[in-house]
Design goal:
This protein is mostly helical. It has 8 helices and no strands.
Length: 239
């Protein structure tokens, strides 16, 4: 079971994520979009969307730093483990709260606003469930272990295991003693990334690079005097 969960499943997820993204780009370019619902409602969207994106960006930065940067590197840079822990817990909790609140606002809007709910597909509903489970389990594991509990240093187990996957030398033994909360969060993340290419989340890989090289768009305004003239009435302008 350990090999299945922490060696085979990660590679299956990466393969699904990579091939799914390539397939989506090749065969569904017109569907490579968020399918924005801003046209139906904007007031609640102005609150929920920035909160969610700001929070998830901080969460992503924290995960990249915690999983990919070895502890020896931060210590060599003069950052003690205690200082790193305090900063990670504080920023992680703040980012998690912003992300959860923003996501809750977006889900409530999608369910309670009639036109938005009517435009919601089954794929969207499944995506929201997996996304909410991943974020919720991650925040719960962090708060339970590092705020309410004695603390858990995932950089001694989860981080080396994560890096070993990309080095093609998986060390699934490191995950055997990881708290169940962190394990559930990681498994939910596997499901999210396997599902990612086939949902509206694919828009995260969009960037307006073409704007840098495309020709200028020429705008021509109407004659400002034209609006002051009365339109002709009748055949040939006769009354």
């Amino acid at each position: 079971m350990t090999t299945l969960l922490w060696t085979i499943l990660p590679y299956a997820t990466l393969l699904t994520f990579g091939l799914g993204t390539v397939w989506r780009y090749r065969y569904d370019k017109f569907g490579w979009t968020t399918r924005s619902s801003q046209l139906y409602e904007t007031t609640v969207l102005r609150w929920g969307l920035p909160m969610f994106h700001f929070g998830i960006l901080l969460v992503l930065i924290g995960h990249v730093g915690g999983l990919l940067v070895p502890k020896a590197w931060t210590e060599a840079a003069g950052i003690s483990e205690h200082a790193y822990h305090l900063l990670a817990v504080f920023l992680g909790t703040v980012a998690g709260v912003f992300t959860v609140v923003g996501l809750a606002v977006l889900i409530a809007r999608r369910r309670l606003v009639g036109p938005v709910f009517a435009a919601t597909t089954r794929n969207d509903k499944a995506m929201y469930v997996v996304l909410a489970a991943t974020i919720g389990l991650g925040l719960l594991a962090t708060v339970r272990a590092n705020v309410l509990g004695a603390g858990y240093d995932y950089r001694e187990t989860v981080s080396p295991w994560f890096r070993s996957i990309f080095l093609l030398q998986p060390r699934d033994d490191l995950m055997a003693e990881v708290p169940i909360g962190f394990q559930l969060h990681i498994l939910a993340a596997f499901a999210l990334f396997a599902f990612w290419p086939f949902t509206r989340l694919i828009h995260a890989f969009s960037a307006p690079v073409g704007y840098l090289t495309r020709p200028y768009v020429v705008y021509r305004s109407r004659d400002p005097r034209g609006s002051a003239r009365r339109a002709p009435v009748g055949w040939g302008g006769r009354r």
